[in-house]
Structures are given as C-alpha cells and as structure tokens.
Amino acid sequence: xxIRSIIFYIFLGIWTIFLGIICLPxxxxxxxxxxxxxxxxxxxxxxxxxxxxxxxxxxxxxxxIPNRPVIVASKHQSAFETLALFYYIDKSIFIHKRQLFxxxxxxxxxxxxxxxxxxxxxxxxxxxxxxxxxxxxLSNGFSIVIFPEGTRKKPGEKPDYKTGFTGIxxxxxxxxxxVAVNSGKCWPKHTFIKNSGHIVISFLxxxxxxxxxxxxxxxxxxxxxxxxxxxx
Length: 232
Known about the structure:
7-stranded mixed β-sheet; 7 strands; 16% strand; globular
C-alpha cells in the first residue's frame, strides 16, 4: 500500500489544484453556489480512494439525518468523515482551528464557505465568539459539525471527549445527531499510508434538546463509542 498511497496523494494534489484553479470564479459569487464544486471535488477523492487504494465506503442511517438544522457530533478518526459529513449533510459547516485558513487553495475555499474558526490562543473570548456564531448559523438553517474529542483518535484508543459541545448544545437549544465511524482502519492517523478496506459512516438516532450538561455528555460519549466498537 506504500506505492498506492504515494500515487493517491499525487493524484489528490493534481485534482485539488486543477479543480481549485478552474473554480476560482466561485470565490467571487455568493457562497451558496460553492457547495456544488466542493461536492464534486469530494466525489473525486472518493473515486481516487476506490480506484487507487481499494477503499470503499458505506453510509448507514441516512434516514436519521433530519431536514432541519442540527448539531452533528461525530467520532473523528481520519479526514474521510470530514469529507463525507460535508457531502451528505446539506448546509453543513464545521468548527475548526483558524490555522486551516492558511492552507493554499484549500484555505481560501474553506474561508468562502463561512466555516466557524477558533483561535485557541484567545481562550474564553474565542469560546464566546464561537457560541455566538454557532447560534447564528443554526438560526440561519445551517447544521454545525463538531468532533467532541477535538482531534483524530486511533481505532481502539481511549476516548477523550471534551465538554465544549455541551455548551453549544445548551446555548443553541438544538438536537444532536451522533455519528460513529471506523475510518481509522483505512486512513490511519499519523501516517500517509492508506489501507484497503471498507469505511462505514453511521448516523445514529437524534438525541433531543433539553438534557442537562452531564446527561448529554454521557449520552453522546456512550452512544458514539458503543456504535464505533461495533463498526470496528
């Protein structure tokens, strides 16, 4: 898989640069038109993974995705679920670290899609700004995608859920869509090597609004971790 992985990244770079350049005019028009070329870029990546790395994928529980704004709380093992969640959830935006804006081409498109960025060095003020933006985005019909552990985790690694998502949940009075994944088997953390296999993204049943912070924290962690173990 070493050679296959090198070939994948070469074609990924070519695909990203090619599409990024020819779609530059989209940066000058309203954001709502940008989603279509981004989704086309994502489909291209899925195709490269299948053809070059023999990585296929499956989406379970699509019927659980509501036709209304929701907080999406997902297990995070690789970049794959970031792409899949953007593709399969309409009007989805992510909460991410501000440094991603500085990536050439990718960062410019990321900024154009009005994602919520966090400058972690600003501490509490950054958290207040993020809560305000999340509430505003949800009221405007966008779903907010968050990774409760804050970073990618290796399959089988001890969970480390942060409490930040409970603040968003309480502040916005929104429901939560939990998501389990097994993508770390094929797209491991801290290595460029891809392993052939089948990735499953599982959308679980909606968790209602109104729970207490500790209750929603435990509910999300238990629900996601139990399903992830089944997928692994």
